[in-house]
């Protein structure tokens, strides 16, 4: 199963965004997006930021992810 995870951009260096959610940091290429700034939320998938998203929508999606994890609904 593949998921794109909403993450907040905390730093941008040479076309790569450092993104964070719940203390987890990942780097993602910005080559597929224009106009991304520190503080924006992006969907990060397979090492690429694939879409810039609204912060409210990012939080809603993250809440659903957390509920699924808390309920143990993901296969091991």
Write the layout of secondary structure elements.
Elements (H helix, E strand, L loop, with lengths): L4 E9 L2 E6 L2 E6 L11 E5 L2 E6 L1 H17 L5
Protein described:
By secondary structure, the protein is α+β, with helices and mostly antiparallel strands. The protein has a single domain, classed as SH3 type barrels. Strands 3-2-1-4-5 form a five-stranded antiparallel β-sheet, with helices on one face. A hairpin with a 2-residue loop joins strand 1 and strand 2. 17% of the residues are buried.
Summarize the structure.
The chain has 76 residues and is α+β, with helices and mostly antiparallel strands. It has one helix at residues 55-71; strands at 5-13, 16-21, 24-29, 41-45, 48-53.
**What is the average per-residue confidence, as pLDDT, rounded to a whole number?**
92
Poorly predicted regions are none
What is the fold named in CATH at topology level?
SH3 type barrels
Distance between the terminal alpha carbons, to the nearest Å? 12 Å
Order of strands in the sheet with the most strands? 3-2-1-4-5
Q: What gross morphology would you assign? A: elongated
Keywords summarizing the entry:
single chain, 76 residues, alpha+beta, SH3 type barrels, five-stranded antiparallel β-sheet, 5 strands, 22% helix, elongated
């Amino acid at each position: 199963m593949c998921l794109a995870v909403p993450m907040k951009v905390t730093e941008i260096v040479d076309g790569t965004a450092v993104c964070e959610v719940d203390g987890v940091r990942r780097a993602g290429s910005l080559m597929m997006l224009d106009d991304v700034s520190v503080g924006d939320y992006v969907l990060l998938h397979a090492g690429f930021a694939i879409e810039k998203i609204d912060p409210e929508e990012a939080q809603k999606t993250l809440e659903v992810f957390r509920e699924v994890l808390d309920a143990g609904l993901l296969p091991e």
